[in-house]
Design a protein that fits this description.
Helix content is 62%, strand content 3%. The chain has a two-stranded antiparallel ribbon with strand order 1-2. It has a two-stranded antiparallel ribbon with strand order 3-4. α2 packs antiparallel against α3 and α5 runs antiparallel to α8. It is globular and about 60 Å long.
């Protein structure tokens, strides 16, 4: 369903030249459909790894699907009407639609939290896999939660003193109005902060951290050190902590009203320290270790599990 929606939106991008808030009107549903497709497929795979509370996980997964569909029906409907979906308080109808969207996202976030708890309680056979899955879903929860910052009235909207009659309440951008100069493809602001950046980076930890481990496993036959499960575990830990640091850094930058592509000295220093810490962690993870026994070459296990390590 979401993949079909992405295809439908892609056609809209080609045949509909309307512009809304400085961007092609079908750009938002196209990106949201793609994001929800990746989100749903990844959660489905993660739920398949659980060995505890599978019925609860089934219900939570269905809630995620249902709430995502409601969200996309409203976004698509508003595009057809030529109206913005987020932050729209222009009419009582638009306000009610946006309220429903907010409630569905809260429920989706709560259902994802339930799935995260199930994954935390599941004992996975490979410890690196456990770290990748748990770290990915927890950071994704934080990233999704950052979206709630956008729903708050901006400082400029509060200063105007007309929140009861304003047509727009909330914004993606910090320090500048939405719809200004933006980066290609992403649409992120190039003149002010943009909370969509940490929101995006955080949510896609769900895919990127497990993908990092998959890459390590695929490279293991060619790189001897990666054949050691303990090395892979250390590298995944470093990647997870480093990724969390990146989410924190981009959030801090956005909240200070600073464009991603125009960092100030403080941001440069913080990014440099984060990069140095990650590099040091990678170096420590790859340092020579005593040769493992034949069993531990393939997995470093947690007790009592039916799940298996990533395989090529």
């Amino acid at each position: 369903m979401m993949a079909f929606g992405a295809l439908f939106s892609a056609v809209g991008l080609v045949v509909d030249d309307r512009i809304l808030v400085g961007a092609p009107i079908w750009a938002k549903p196209f990106k949201f459909y793609l994001s929800f497709t990746a989100y749903g497929l990844t959660l489905a795979w993660m739920l398949a790894q659980t060995t505890w509370g599978r019925r609860t996980g089934w219900w939570a997964g269905n809630v995620v699907v249902l709430t995502a569909l409601v969200e996309m029906v409203i976004i698509t409907g508003q595009v057809i009407r030529g109206k913005r979906s987020h932050f729209n308080a222009e009419t009582p109808f638009d306000t009610n639609l946006y309220t429903v969207m907010g409630l569905t996202i809260v429920v989706l976030w709560a259902a994802t939290l339930v799935i995260a708890v199930l994954l935390l309680r599941t004992r996975l056979a490979d410890r690196a896999t456990a770290w990748a899955i748990r770290g990915g879903v927890l950071i994704a929860l934080v990233g999704a939660g950052l979206g709630f910052l956008m729903a708050q009235p901006t400082a400029e909207q509060r200063a105007a003193g007309n929140l009861d009659t304003a047509d727009v309440i909330g914004a993606h951008s910090v320090g500048v109005p939405d719809g200004g100069p933006a980066m290609p493809l992403t649409g992120w602001s190039t003149t002010g902060g943009d909370l969509r950046i940490p929101h995006f980076v955080g949510m896609h930890a769900l895919q990127l951290i497990p993908l990092f481990l998959i890459v390590l496993v695929l490279l293991a036959p060619r790189i001897a050190r990666l054949g050691d499960a303990r090395v892979r575990l250390r590298l995944v830990r470093v990647a997870t902590v480093g990724y969390a640091g990146l989410v924190a850094l981009t959030t801090w930058q956005a909240l200070r009203g600073q464009p991603l592509i125009h960092p100030d000295t403080a941001t440069f220093l913080a990014a440099g320290m984060l990069l140095a810490a990650v590099a040091a962690g990678v170096g420590a993870a790859l340092r020579t270790t005593p040769a493992p026994d034949p069993v531990s070459v393939h997995t470093e296990t947690e007790p009592a599990s039916d799940s298996e390590e990533f395989t090529a």
